[in-house]
Every structure is written in C-alpha cells, then in structure tokens.
Amino acid sequence: MTSRFDATTTTTCGYCGVGCRLEAHRVGGRIASISPAGDGPANKGHTCVKGRFAHQFSRSRDRLTAPLVREGGEFRLASWEEAIGRVADAFGRIKSEHGPDAIAGLASSRATNEDCYVMQRMMRAAIGTHNIDNCSRVCHSPTSFALRKSFGLSGATGSFDDIEAAQVALIIGANPTQGHPVAGARIKQAAIKGLRLITADPRRIELADYGELHLGMRPGTNAALLNGLAHVVIRDDLTDHEFVAERTEGYEAVAELVEAYTPESVEEITGVPAADVVRAAHLYARAERASILWGLGVTEHRYGSECVRLICNLALLTGNVGRPGAALLPLRGQNNVQGSSDHGALPDTFTDYRPVSDDAVAESFERRWGVAMKRERGMKIPEMFDAAVEGRLKAMYIFGEDVAQTDPNTEHVIHALESLDFLVCQEIFESVTTQYADVVLPASSFLEKIGTFTNAERRVQFVSAALDPPGSAKTDFEILTTVSGALGHEMGYETPSDVMDEIAELTPRYAGISHERVGRGGLQWPVAPDGTDTPILYEERFELPGGRARFAPLPYKPPGDQADDEFPFILVTGRRLEHYNAGTMTRRTGNLELMSSDWLEVHPDDAAALGLEDGETVTVRSRRGEIQLPARVTERIEPGHVFTAFHFPEVRTNLLIGPSADINTSCPEYKVVAVAIEPVGERAREPVSAGAEPALSGS
Amino acid sequence: MKVEIDGQPVEVEPGTTILEAAQAAGRHVPTLCFDDRMAPFGACRVCMVALEGAAAPVAACTTPCRDDMRVHTEDETARRIAAATVELVLSELPEPPAEHTELAAVARFFEIGAPRWPGERRAPAHDRRHPYLALQHELCISCGRCVRACDEVQGAFALTATGRGFGSGITAGLDAGFVDSTCVSCGACADTCPTDAITEHSLLELTTAYTDDEGGLR
Known about the structure:
The complex is a heterodimer.
Chain A: E1 7-12, E2 21-27, E3 30-36, H1 49-53, E4 68-71, E5 74-77, H2 80-98, E6 103-107, H3 113-127, E7 132-134, H4 141-150, H5 161-165, E8 168-172, H6 176-179, H7 181-192, E9 196-200, E10 213-215, H8 222-235, H9 241-247, E11 248-249, H10 251-258, H11 263-270, H12 274-286, E12 290-294, H13 296-299, H14 304-317, E13 328-330, H15 337-342, H16 359-369, H17 381-390, E14 395-399, H18 403-406, H19 410-419, E15 422-427, E16 439-442, E17 451-454, E18 459-463, H20 476-486, H21 496-506, H22 515-518, E19 523-524, E20 549-550, E21 569-574, H23 591-594, E22 600-602, H24 604-610, E23 616-622, E24 626-633, E25 641-645, E26 673-683
Parallel strand pairs in A: 6-7, 6-14, 8-9, 8-12, 9-10, 11-20, 12-13, 14-15, 15-16, 21-25, 22-24
Antiparallel strand pairs in A: 1-2, 2-3, 4-5, 4-16, 17-18, 18-19, 21-26, 22-25, 23-24, 23-26
Chain B: E1 2-5, E2 8-11, H1 18-24, E3 48-51, E4 58-59, E5 70-72, H2 76-91, H3 102-109, E6 126-127, E7 133-136, H4 145-154, E8 159-162, E9 169-172, H5 188-192, E10 198-200, H6 201-207
Parallel strand pairs in B: 1-5
Antiparallel strand pairs in B: 1-2, 3-4, 3-5, 6-7, 7-10, 8-9
C-alpha cells in the first residue's frame, strides 16, 4: 500500500502549552492533514481543533515571504542583504550615540528554545544589553516568580499524568476545556472516572459541570479564598504536621495570618458561601493525593504572584507536593512560554533563571561568548514601553509578538512604538505591531523549523520541520544568527542542535539535554548529565537553601481596579477554544468558520436590568477606553461580571485594560477591569470579516 | 498469571485481555472496532480466537485472560467467522474501502475479494457542513469507535449511534451536524474511523475527485 502523503513528520504542536505531539502529513509542499502522535506523553493520541486542523495559516497567501523596509512612509520589498544591513546600521548608530541599553529585544514564546537562546545571546553579546524579555511577562511570570520563592524552581512540580493519579484536583483561574483543550479532555475524563474536581473561577466553566464543587469567587479575590482554605485546613487539623515540620519553613506566620480568614469573612470578600469554603478545604486536604492546576485567572492580577505563593502554601500544609498525583500544575499559555523563560530570554536571568548579577554564572557566559556583560538587570516589557515614550529607549527588535494587539494599555504601547527611532519585527504575518516597523524580516512558523519546545510539565520536546519556509522567508535560527554576525558577533553554530549543546554545557540543570536524547518522548528538566530526567520535582528536597520549602504569609489585598457607580461591572478576559491569542494563526484557517466574531458574556439578571437582549451590540467602557461588541446572555457568568476574549483585532479588548500589574513581575491585570455596559440600541451587525487583514482602525 | 498464546507462554497481570496478551507475545490479531485509546467494545467480531476447551471462538479484545489459558490466534474456525463478518460488512458498501483505511487492511489480511453476497448497498449520503470534518454515512460500519472516541477521549458526547440493521449509522447532534452539536471539532472521531465514514475534506481531496455534487449538505 502506498501512502497518501509525500512525507510524515513527527513534531510538537505550536499552539498551547500542553505540548501535544503531532504527525504532520505533507503533500506537494503543504500540510494535507495533522494527526496526533500515539506516543505523545501529554496528549496520548489526542489533539484539539487548533493542533489538528488550524494549520492552513502556514501556506496563507499573506505570509511574509520577503523582507520589507520602510521608505517614505511605505513598505517596499527588499533583499535580505539590504534589510539586515539596515538593521546593523541602525543598531550600530543607536548603540554608539546612546549606548547599548537604548536597544531592547523581545523573544517569542511561540519560537523554539534554541531561537530564544540565540535571541538573548544576540541582545546580550552582539548588542551588549540585558534588555531582553518575552511574553511570559504578560501571562505566567507571576507563577515563575512564586514557584521559585516557595519551592526553588520555575516549573510545574509534576506532570499531566498526575491528573489521572490524583484523587482530588483543585482548578483555579483556568478554563482548560477552552484554553488547554487536550489537558481539559484529560481532566474531564479523569473526573468521569472518579477524580473529585473542585473548580474555582468567576465563570461557571464547563469542567464545573463534571466537578463536585464550584466556587464562583469575585474576580480579584483569589487570595482571600486561598487563605480561607488554609484557615480551614489548620482549624480542622488537616495539616500534614510531619511534612510541615521536616520540609518547610515559616508555618507559624501563615497559621497566625490565616486565623482571621474564617469561612464567614471569606464569604464576605469572595461571595463564595462559607460552607463551600469548608467543603473545598476538606475535600482537598483529606485526599491522599491532591493536585492544584491554575491558569492566568490566578496570575494576571495585581497580586498574582502572591496568589501563586498562597497556592503553594496550601500544598505545603497538606504535604501535596513531590508525589505522584500530588502536583502543582500551572497551565502555561503558549507552546513555549516555559522554554523561552527557561532559556534566558528575561532581563534578569540567564538560562535556568540564574541571575545576571551572579558573577560565576555571568563569567561562564562571558567566557563562552567572548564578551563582558553588566551585572545589572535589563528592562521588563512594560519598562521598555515607558522608556520608549520617555525617549530613553531608541530601538526595539520584536520577534514573534504582536504587542500592539496583545499587551494592555494599547494606546500607551502604540505611543511607545511610534516614539522609537527604529523598530525591527521578525514575523510570519504583518500585524498591528509591524505597521510601526522600519524593517520586517519574514520568518518561519513552527511547522518550518527544527528545535525544541518545553511544555507546561517542563518537558523538552523535539520540533521537526514538516515544510520549508515560504518564498525567501528564513528560519528564525538563520535570521538571528545572521543579524548577530552583521552586528559583529558570530555565534558559530551550524544547526539548532549546536545551540542546545551550548545550553547544556553552560546550564547544569539541562546538562543531559541534546537533540538526540530528546527523541520522541522528550525530557523533563532537570536532566542529569547521563540523560536521567525528572517527572516529579522535590521528592526528597526543595531547591532552596537548606532544602526546605518556604511558606509565605500574604494577606488578601483588593485588586487594582474596583467596580463603582460609574463602572459597575467587572470585566474578565480570557480565551476561546477555536482561537489562539491574537488570532494571527487561527483567523487564517477554517476555525474562523467555527467562530467568526467575539461576544461579551452577560448574566441574565444583568441583561434584564440593562434592558439588553441576546445578540444586541453593547458599548463596553473602562477608565482607559471603549469597545463595542455583541452581548450573549449566559448563566456561565456570575451577576456583576462580564467576559470576553482578545482574539479579534477588530474588537481590541486590550484598549480597556489599564496599567495595573502584578507588584513583583509587572504581569498585567487583564482579569479585573471595572467597566460600564450600555446597549447601543441596535441589533448585532453581521460579524466583521476577520480574515487576513490586521485591522488597525478598530473597524 | 500465565497464559499460552500459540504455544508461547506469556506472563500477564490479572485483568489483561487476550488481545493484550497476544500483542505482548508479538502475535498479530486483526481488529476493527478496537482502539487502545478507548475501552474494548467487542462489536466487530474480527479479533476472534480459539480457546482450548471452549465451545466456540471468543473475541480477544473483550475476553480477560485466565490462568493457564491456551489461545490459538490462527484457529481455522475463528478465522472463518471473522472473515465472513468482514465480508458481510464489505457487501453493504457502495464501493470497496479506500486503500489506506483499516477496513481495507483487514480485508487484505483475510484475503477477501469482491463480496460473494450481492444485495442491497448503501446509497451515498454526505454531510459536509463542517469546515474540516466530512461525514460519509454510507461508509459507516457501526463499529462505534467515533462515538466512543467522542465520549471517552474527548468527552464532547456529540455523536450517537442511530438506526437498526441496514439503516444503522451515526449522527452528530441528532442530525444537527457537527457545528451545531456539542462537537468541539477535536477530530478524534475522524482519527479513529476505520473506513473514512468520518474524515477530513483535505484528505478526501487527495484520493478522490472530491466535488460537492453527490447528495451533499454542504
């Protein structure tokens, strides 16, 4: 029997952080079909509407296939030599006039580990600045920060397999059946087979229907709920005293702090009935193996990083960490949001989160790269935009991120981009951000490159090229190494495999990782020099001085924005199943037929009070801006709250989001925005065609 | 416990099925309704094997091993029953199954040519309303794999077995079609379907002159 396909390539999905392994079937230079790899550790022969079907974007007619340079206000096609020459000239000039710190770069959490490592090396060694960040800043940087403080390492403590191994799972601030569909399917199946689920979210998410208990807390009150759960655990003596005594520090301060968080007081703050707080705490603490999963509903808050530490407290109190079925699993947003941060695309750390201020670590990179580096950290994303507006930052190199659509406080971001002397975008499509670029370099999608992604369970998995980049587009590896060479820093790699070898050589916890070893099954870091990986962290000791985990006594504090008379509703933003983040990829596929426009979810009681009918267009106004979109009346949302996603540029949800951000990591508070809702008095128009064009005008 | 597959001893855990034991022993037992992502179903009778001391062949996928069981996977009676079942299935189809399908592979395994039982064949009935998924009802053999994948792998509960006998088949959302059902477009049904009764438009385009003419709803 002959195959229907010219070739089949096993690779790793480029959508969410679950990290499904895929078989990409190629016919005549395009993908004919994608099927799940039966041996994928995270997906076990399954995938979702994005991973399986949303691949036609890779051959979309509007892919960037040649470099663009700006001339007289317009883009024109250019050769690679000219485009890269312009980048080198501009960066050289700005560096000599204003110093290297007047330049900043953003790596991409959709790109490979190798791409991100090369990008941060280019910024640090070729340009000479630590001004490098990536979009985990706006999603799970609070998780990374908190896990490092509480346990030592920045990653899930276990694996997706712990979902099936657990007896009880608490899912807080995540909607896995939409945002992480394959993990969502695994959780749902586990729940059907007996996993006792507690869901906690301002929306009644689908998994709540399969759970034992749903806690519908008010947005921004997670800390009160988590401290309330800890209160009940301690009050009813469900504490694992042996674990607390032998493996933790700081219990007393937490016990003292949470005393005030009685179920009744928690009900007052969160709106969750006191009896449900008690029931949830009992369910979680009485299980022999209980896991906690969370998403951006925990992190994208003013005190997001503190809430992750409170999640850690709860696990420590009950000894639910470091064993099968007792895991803390942050559901990472993009395919490689774990890996981009792991590999040093952050302003304060080299690979494996080792600070740039650490002399021994910095010297190892200086020796390898033949350069000297500062010991002071660079700018985080929001600081970059502030500096651009203030004129301190002159140039940016933005790789695979549409900041003008996805970052909060859109007006400010656009002002920043306009203020720059020079902007380079490395992209697969024109975007809102590329409209402000001076040079646009046509890059490659995940189907066109070689390297590794690291999924939400710290698993480094291989990415293989199923296609060639279209036209004269190049792989990101080739572009970045060439630009670095043009800036006077030759990296000396032949293939991405050489990059991983360098990472392994300079990073003790990744010492055993190589492309060859990653193979089909992947490797979960830390990986010992002999290739032994680590599905479960902290079985014996925590990675902090003394080997003990740290409790964090942190009180509830109100969110950065609050409803008031003028803005009486709280807007929560999130994801929908059919689309992915800025929609750059999914809106260029048949997924658009499955979901062609967005809507605002409104509770029936609120709709009645507003005189609002299902499908009617409303104006949503915040302290920052306003947008219009159709309303959908649903009981999935609690009264007083409204919800929408951010996949459609024509909706421009992020115009509404203010500057409030996590106090430790600057992760924006996308989840709590006070808004006013007004019907505009017309039925929903036909959905705006959301095809290929990056609609800037908010059409 | 210990079982013997075609004379070869295999050590298995209690609860292991004969099919799993045979696979562990490296023996090939053909299957049609089986998919290791889902619980065994025992609908297709293609995995029939003989047990020493048993009155009749049994389905390997749903029969648990017992201590000292002796299994013959190439038993003539078992093979004859399985082949006849496959031949009956094939006799209802309007055309032979596409070469790449599992049904075609099973037919090749049993060396079944043109079915010897001419009779009524299913009329083409296509639903192409979904942007990716194509339903070709006439190719459905009621193995239940899509329904179980939808229930047991995804958990969308969008597919239902309908009809009886010659009129049996599957339906998405009680005939509302995939898009207007609880379907989440994960494609698990198309991935498991052994006949292309559920497949992708992009795959049909590869093997057939795929047009919108025959009885299509799209």
